Amino acid sequence: MIDAMALPQKFCLTLLLTCFLAKTSYALVLGQPVIQSTKEQLLYMEVPYSEATNIKSIRVNIEDDDEISKLGINSKDMGFVVRKNGANFGIIVVTSNKPIRSPRINFVLKVTESDMPYLKRINIPFKVSGTNTTTDPHNEEKTLSPIALNTNENKVASKNTDPDNVNSVNVDHSNDVKFIYRVKPQDTLWSISAKIATQTGEKLDDIAKKIKADNPTAFTRQNMNHIKSGVRINIWGPEQIKEVLQKSTMIPVANKATERNDQLSEDIQKELLQTKARIRALEHEISRLQREMKQRNAKFDVINGKINDLRQQIKQLNEKNARS
Length: 324
Description:
The protein is of the alpha+beta class. The protein has helices at residues 12-24, 65-69, 155-159, 163-167, 189-200, 204-214, 239-248, 253-323; strands at residues 29-30, 34-35, 42-50, 59-62, 78-84, 90-99, 104-113, 116-125, 177-182, 232-237. The longest helix has 71 residues, at 253-323.
C-alpha cells in the first residue's frame, strides 16, 4: 500500500480519494512497474494495469514535474503509451527521449480513467548494466533486458567476461542483410531492439537509434520512441533475426478472437449511435414540416373564410339587383 505521508501534500487528498474508491467500487488497478533499460540509457518501463472499465479514456502523466527534473530531464521528454492486451487489462509503457543518469526512478505516475485519477509512486533502481542475463526468445516481452546476450547463440559474448567489454562488443556487419518487417500491435521499439540484441550482442540503445535513423517516418510525432503499429520498417542484421522476429510476434488465436469481438462490438455501437442520430434528425424534420403545414392550413382557413364572405356579399347584391 502506498504511504500517503511520503507523497507531496498537494496530491495527498487525491490519493486518499482514489484509495477509498478502489475499496468501494470497481476501480483501475496499477501493478508493479518493471524497468527494462539501464542507467545512462533512454528509459523504457512497463506498468501493468487491470480492472479497467474504459481503456480508451486512460490518460497518463507525471504528477510532479519537479521530481522529473531531478532525474536530469523534463516532463516534455517523457512519453506514455497505453497498450491493450485484453478486455480490461494491458500495459502502460513509459519512455524518455533523453538518457536518465540517475541511479533510480522516483516519481509519482498519474493515470486518469474516465476523469478519475489514480496515483502510483514509482521508486525503483535501474537494472545493473553489467548483469549478463539470457533472454528467452519465446517470452522476450516479459524478460526484456537491454544488454541481454544469448551465450548459447553468440560466441563473441561468451568470450568476453568483462561487463564493460560486453557492452562494447564489436560486431561484424559484413554479412548483414536487409529485410522488411511489419510492426505488430504488441511491438515496441525496445522489444524489437532486444530481439535483435540477442542475436548480435550489440547494445540495445545503439540498435534502437539505428532503427530510428533508418525508419524516421515509422514513429509518432508526440513520442519518437513510439513506433506505429502496422508500418513496415527496414531492418539490417543476420539472416536469423528475421526468423526470431516472426516467431516472437505470433499472437494466440484467443487474443485475436477477443480483439476481433471487441472491434466488432465497437463498430456495432458506432452504427447504432449513427442510426439513432439519423432517426432524431428525421423526427425533428417531420415535426418542423408538421408545424409549417398547420400554419399553412390556418392561413387557408382564413382565406376560405374571406372568400365565403365575399360570395355572400355578391349573392346579396345579386338579389337586390333582381328585385329592382
